[in-house]
Amino acid sequence: MPLPNPALIHAAREAPPDRPLAAPEGFARTAGLAVGAFLALAVAGWFCPRWLTFLLTMAAGNGLVSLGIAGLMRGGVVSFGQGLVFATGAYTAALVYNRLGFTDALGLALAGGLAAMLLAAPFAPLLSRYRGIFFAMLTLALSMVAYGLLMKLSVLGGSDGFNIGRATLFGQRLPDDRVGYVLFLLTTGLATAAGVVARRTFDSTRGLVTLAAKENELRVEYLGGSVRQAMALNFIAAAFCGGTGGALVVMSLGHVEPNFSFWTTSGEFVFVAILAGSQSVAAVFLASTVLEAVRSFSSAYFPNTWQLALGVFLLFVIRFLPGGLGSLWIKRGRR
Fold first, then answer.
1. For the segment 217-239, what is each residue's pLDDT rounded down to a tens digit?
2. Considering its fold, how many domains does the chain have in total?
3. I want to staple 84 with a disulfide (CB 3.0 to 4.6 A). Which of 17, 80, 143, 238 is the partner?
4. Is the residue at 180 inside a domain?
């Protein structure tokens, strides 16, 4: 039986629960880099064509969902049912807009995340008991049950779904020529904030317990760590990220449909998480951007074979970068 990293166990045992273990200057540097990246994207987005702004918006929204999967991967589990929380966030935002008349984009995004978190919370204690293929199949089953319900419920638009109008921001109507840019700023801003929080969480006690549990759960339990609690909290956090991402995506698309919960949608999120690896937060959004770019250009020039291009690309990454894109600069930094 493999032994967990002693340094991880010692750090997790000595610190109070959820206390950040990263040095304050290290976190400040991470936050500074994140803010700098957001400002650079904001300036670049002003000059980008609309199609590129839309592509980056979709990449940031979908990257939020994959960020939750990356957090679960650090504990040795992969969710193939993130389409469930993705669809929950999207449908919540659309329903709140259409039925309640609440149109603020930031509020709709947070409402989608909270709805997904509330939906996932009752299942978290159950799923925290399972690992490997059992965890993956249970999450996939939940997602497909939701897909079946969405297809049949005419009150939710059935198989056709329904539209959502243009959102506002802080009570102001978005200008016609800059609505895409404002949604781009909102999506990348929330993605940046989520990335900073995720990095802080990964370096906290719970984050180190999650890493140690991936290597040897039994010894972590002997040392006083609660693996099931950490897994349950990780699942709920991933649900919030997924719901927020779904709400942001549906506001950019203007339409929601049951395919948001289909297994192929969940598979794309897993694809991004595997491509990025679980070591770097920035790599998740980079991988999501790569996926959107490959899908857009491949579907334009090779409409019948773009999935083949994605599959070949993933095979190369698994073969030559088993740690994901994030291992490129993380290994270099350790040297």
1. 778 777 777 788 888 999 999 99
2. 1
3. 143
4. yes
